[in-house]
Design a protein that fits this description.
Helix content is about 50%, strand content about 10%. The chain has ten helices and five strands; from the N terminus they run αββααααααβββααα. A hairpin with a 5-residue loop joins strand 1 (about 30-35) and strand 2. Bound molecules: fe (ii) ion (FE2). Fe (ii) ion binds near residues 68, 72 and 210.
């Protein structure tokens, strides 16, 4: 990591401490100056990466993390802000509210919010689920995985297969269904499981922007690597809180 990247990583760490690890998926007052150095006017902001860009090495490389977070996620935020500009009734909603009921959106911005609101939500959900925190699910999540799949490895096999089955860009998900049980789902593009009525518990981003620099066309290697960097402590905590 060169000096510029080190300083940037330190800046992000300081920003994270100041926000108490909360990632703002909803509103922030006024123009948003992001930690990534971009300025995006509008209610939605890019949450800082909750760890250094090289924290997931060697499984996810720092260059990919920079591009993925600073460029791709930032673009979803910018485009979402552009979509709600001139629609104060939309700009006052959280991104979860916007993408949970796409039919309620004006025709003129529905597709833009579906794609970019979904991209903002999915990535904001995703970043904190990665990192080095525990080696296995705990508590309610561990029980729910065992009840549905029989074991953690069986769930990982099914989620991996789902990730491999996505044609083109999209996501594979472990979701909580309305009855509280778990299921495996996939979504194309940046569609959110919220639109399907399911809360995500864990997701695998299988857009090529998530892995192509390091893994090229070897998606299976990337999916295997993904399971090396899941922050099970955080994922388990979030699952328990949403029970
Ligand atoms: Fe992504």
């Amino acid at each position: 990591m060169n000096r510029r990247l080190v300083l940037k990583a330190l800046g992000l760490s300081a920003g994270l401490a100041a926000t108490g690890h909360a990632f703002a998926m909803g509103q922030a007052a006024g123009a948003a100056e992001t930690k990534a150095g971009s300025v995006a006017g509008g209610p939605f902001t890019l949450p800082p990466l909750p760890y250094a860009y090289d924290a997931l090495e060697p499984y996810m490389d720092a260059t990919t993390m920079h591009l993925h977070h600073d460029k791709h996620h930032q673009a979803y935020v910018n485009n979402l802000n552009a979509a709600v500009a001139g629609h104060p009734e939309l700009a006052g909603k959280t991104v979860e509210q916007l993408i949970s009921d796409l039919n309620a959106l004006p025709d003129t911005v529905r597709t833009a919010i579906r794609n970019n609101g979904g991209g903002h939500y999915n990535h904001s959900f995703w970043w904190p689920t990665l990192g080095k925190g525990g080696s296995a699910p705990k508590g309610e999540l561990a029980k729910a995985i065992d009840a549905k799949f029989g074991s953690l490895s069986a769930m990982q096999d099914k989620l991996s297969s789902a990730a491999m089955s996505v044609f083109g860009s999209g996501w594979a998900w472990l979701v909580r269904q309305p009855d509280g049980t778990l299921a495996i789902e996939t979504t194309p593009n940046q569609d959110s499981t919220l639109t399907m009525g399911y809360k995500p518990a864990l997701g695998v981003d299988v857009w090529e922007h998530a892995y192509y620099l390091k893994y090229q066309n070897r998606r299976a290697e990337y999916v295997k690597a993904f399971f090396q960097v899941v922050n099970w402590d955080y994922v388990s905590e979030q699952f328990a809180q949403k029970a």
